[in-house]
Amino acid sequence: MVDQIEENTGHLPDELSADTGYCTEDNIGALEAREIRGYIATGRQKHGTSSPTANQEKRQGPRTKAMRTPLTQRG
């Protein structure tokens, strides 16, 4: 996604948001390496839960866990 943005605009974005399909340790690490502030959903919100991060998802890597913090502080 970032490569396509750069190709289309000639610039890297300062921030990027993406759905849970992009939530991998590698993708989060690539954003960090390019110094792009990322907001990637770490899970899907299920009916009856207070937020997408209310239930612990299968994704448990350190970068994914760190991504949950800014997502729960917004809103």
Structure description:
There is one protein chain. With 75 residues, the protein is an alpha+beta fold. The chain has one domain. The chain is built from three helices and two strands; from the N terminus they run H-E-H-E-H. The protein has helices at residues 2-9, 25-33, 62-73, and strands spanning 15-18, 37-40. It has a two-stranded parallel sheet with strand order 1-2. The longest helix has 12 residues, at 62-73. The chain is elongated and about 45 Å long. The two termini are 25 Å apart. The mean pLDDT is 82.
Secondary-structure map:
Blueprint: H1 2-9, E1 15-18, H2 25-33, E2 37-40, H3 62-73
Parallel strand pairs: 1-2
Rg estimate, integer Å: 13 Å
Largest beta sheet, briefly?
Answer: 2 strands, parallel
* Structural class computed from helices and strand pairing: alpha+beta
Which sequence of strands runs across the widest sheet?
Answer: 1-2
User: Which descriptor suits the 3D outline?
Assistant: elongated
Q: Count all strands and give the number.
A: 2
Order of helices and strands: HEHEH
Which ranges are low-confidence, i.e. pLDDT below 50, for 5 or more consecutive residues? none
- Provide the number of structural domains: 1
**Counting H and I runs of at least 4 residues, what is the number of helices?**
3
β-strand percent reads 5-15%
End-to-end CA span: 25 Å
**Mean pLDDT across residues:** 82
How much helix, percentage-wise, in residues? 25-40%
